[in-house]
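It is worth pausing here to work through a concrete case rather than discussing structure prediction in the abstract. The textbook approach is simple: state the sequence, then state the predicted structure, then interpret. We follow exactly that order.
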Amino acid sequence: MNKANKMNVNRLLATLSHINQYGANQHGKGITRLAYTPLYEEALRDFIGLCEAEKMTVRVDAFGNMIARREGTNPKLPVVALGSHMDTVIQGGEYDGTLGVVAALEVIRSLNEEEIETIHPIELIVFACEESARFGASTLGSKAMTGLLDTYSVSNLRDKNGITIQQAFQDYSLDFQKIDKVIRKREEFKVFLELHIEQGPILEMQRKKIGIVTGIASPTRIEVRIQGKASHSGTTPMNDRQDALVAAAEIILEVEHAAKEESAFGTVGTVGVCMVQPGAMNVIPDSVHLQLEVRGTSEQSKNNVLDSLFRLFRELEERRGVVINPSVIIVERPVLLSKEVVNMLTDCSNTLDLSYIHMTSGAGHDAMSMGHLCPTGLIFIPCREGLSHHPDEYASAEDIEAGLQLLKEATLRFAISTT
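Step two, the predicted structure:
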């Protein structure tokens, strides 16, 4: 590494630890900091104070997104934006999202210490409600900012305690009726950059410091209800059954099989929910509720998997005498990130002598929303064993420093050039 570009990673780690005191489980079971909760509000207020200490002007928009601005010598130019999110999953780790906003702050601190002025303003954005842990829908804050939010659908979201998102807004001193005010224009941004742990094992396995993301996979999520016929398990012949669970088992296996057929495109399929009724050992299952997703960066590949599933649904109805009702929960389009930004990050990595690969992201990020609005870059660093959304989530100080160096270098190149 170029020593001239050495960053204060110890200060970053101290700040990360400081923010993660909000929601930390005293018994070592990770961090729970859900969007729009008092704990989240306390953490964000603390982080706002850290931004203000760096002479940044801070505002919180009508969706709860925090925007801190470091002025450039030409305030009228579009901003170079950095950021991620601070909300977590339930019993999550220390790095997912939060590392990205703390790293962005460390870039600002470094620029201030070196008294570096940039032509373009720099914004640090903490997006609200990136995780689906509370309301079952993800990247809401960045979707709101980029005009991708389906306001009507979102208005009906509830958490597991029955609290609506509108009530959560009210408790958080936000007005849900004003969320259309948060939409920003393309010309406001020059670029958006996000630093994140990979949440997968590829960088660690290939012993690379940096993943330069070229595209972000998107999910299509489907709910499948299978209606069979309950009857006595001991008196109903095997050839005279309408077993909903056996039909569901075929669907689950087909998700795996069809996704493997598309593995060359990086497409994956997962059945994450399987609820069986009536749930008695001596009763043939009457109904099954599945929730599944197909995720990838190729829409055609995703559609190939879905086509296989829908063909199977019709076949199972005829062969097993069940009724299958699928319904689409959400369809999101894959995002290909800016080639210009990918090339810039590649050049910066070469300059800093950082090993890297170009790769796609299987997980969604706020960069996915921002990629619809402006040129966007997503930087990955390794995480141990690819583990994420887990209390044992970990990234080494050395890898964090590499990502931080790259984030600063790219920020400077974009912020000091008017082209």
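Step three, interpretation. The chain has a mean pLDDT of 95. The radius of gyration is 23 Å.
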